[in-house]
Amino acid sequence: MKISEKLLNMSPYDPTENKYSVKLDANESFIELPPVIKAKMLSAIAEVAENRYPDPSCRVLREAASKIYNVPDKNIVCGNGSDELLSIIISSFNMKGDKIMTAAPDFSMYEFYAHNAECEVVTYEKDDALVIDPNELISMAKEQNVNMLIFSNPCNPTGVGLPASDIKRIVSSLDSLVVVDEAYMEFWNESILDSVLEYDNCILLRTCSKAFGMAALRVGFAIANDILISCMNKSRSPFNVSALVQAGAASVLSEREYLEECCEKIRKNTEELRHMALELKEKNQNFEYMPTVTNFVLLKTKKAKEYYNELLGRDICVRLVKGKYLRITSGSADENRIVMDALAQISER
Questions:
Q1: Which helix (H) or strand (E) holds 345?
Q2: Of the residues 254, 279, 306, which one is the last residue of a structural domain?
Q3: CA pair distance 186, 164, nearest whole angstrom
Q4: What is the pLDDT of residues 321-340, one digit of tens each?
Q5: For the packed helices 35-46 and 243-253, what is the interaxial angle rounded to 10 degrees?
Q6: Scanning 79, 217, 219, 257, which has the fewest C-beta atoms within 10 Å of its C-beta?
């Protein structure tokens, strides 16, 4: 049997295991569902007819998301995490050899799915402050005649965000399909949700894995105009979100006040983590603090890999980025203190 060259040359995504006592590498929520809401979710799941296929349209889940995002439910596609939606979008809206433009650094799965679809990846390199220049991005996309532009806003892993006005200018300046991944927008206030349906070339992605604390359920949403949504529904598998997940996630999304409280608590803890990171930077010149608008902080240091391995030795996991950044997700107050105290001790030696 001959295995395709693209598979032989592919490196799998390698997430860390959930084996560390302090795990702040995946930008998950540190907040577990309270017993009352968990009981409500389990009750909804218990009503699912396990011998029947799921609702292929995810109607109840789309209606719950519609109330959260204030867009019509007909303009939402549900996915098994936004990762599945990325795979659907990249493979369906591009042909072999088409050019897909990404920004670097950014979420590595964009390039992964692009290569899997046998597309050519064109990379826009961000400046030293990890910021995108909208004019340069637009010019490069036009010069390269890209079929698709995809990036996250705010960005993972840099934590930098572009104002909504810049995103709208990028979308309106291009004929290419523009995919804007807003996985972290609950922690900022520059979404283009209010205008995404006005564009014929934009798909917006949102997730339940970050601020809403449902990473285990794997639920994501694509939001776009009628035509783009119709195209996605043609290309996705008919039962892509399990009935158990649909019921559970819709139940939690109906708890609007609880979700808002979660977002506020995460923002508060992140602000405390930023304060500790700035204090560390002031005391130790090995660190450069990179401002973020997400639920994580970013520290630049020449000893990033050394510190990362030292933290692992202390049963603490953060994310090593490009060999020179430590990306630290905001955890509970205790977790934040533990990781920052450990970094302070390690870096003083």
A1: helix 333-348
A2: 254
A3: 14
A4: 999 999 999 999 999 999 99
A5: 140
A6: 257
Q: Are residues 228 and 160 part of one domain?
A: yes
231 and 98 within one domain? yes
Indicate if 99 and 225 belong to the same structural domain.
Answer: yes
Q: What is the DSSP string of 79-148?
A: EEHHHHHHHHHHHHS--TT-EEEEEESS-THHHHHHHHTTPEEEEEEP-TT----HHHHHHHHHHHT-SE
CA triplet 214, 216, 217: central angle to 5 degrees?
70
Alpha-carbon distance 35 to 42, whole Å? 10
Render pLDDT for 104-123 as a digit per residue (tens, 0 to 9): 999 999 999 999 999 999 99
CATH of the domain at 46: 3.40.640.10
The DSSP code for 205 is E
Rounded Cα distance, 33 and 80, in Å: 20
Per-residue DSSP letter, 215: T
The answer on pLDDT for 244 being more than 70 is yes
Distance CA 159, CA 152 (A): 10
pLDDT tens digits, one per residue of 278-316: 999 998 888 999 999 999 999 999 999 999 999 999 999
Write down the pTM of the prediction.
Answer: 0.94
- Give the tokens for residue 289: 């603090």
Rounded to the nearest angstrom, the gap between the alpha carbon of residue 171 and the centroid of all alpha carbons in its chain is 20
Return the pLDDT at 276: 97
* Domain span at 224: 35-254
> Quick check: 183 and 207 in contact, CB under 8 A?
yes
Give the full edge-to-edge strand order of the sheet including 288-290. 288-290, 296-300, 325-329, 319-321
Considering only CA atoms, which of 87, 93, 224 is closest in space to residue 146?
A: 93
Task: Kindly report the number of other CB atoms within 10 A of residue 226's CB atom.
Answer: 12
Residues 21 and 40 in one domain: no
Give the count of domains, the chain.
2
Q: Which residues lie below 8 Å from residue 167, measured CB to CB, with a gap of 6+?
A: 153, 180, 190, 192
Considering the domain architecture, whether residues 169 and 203 belong to the same structural domain is answered as yes
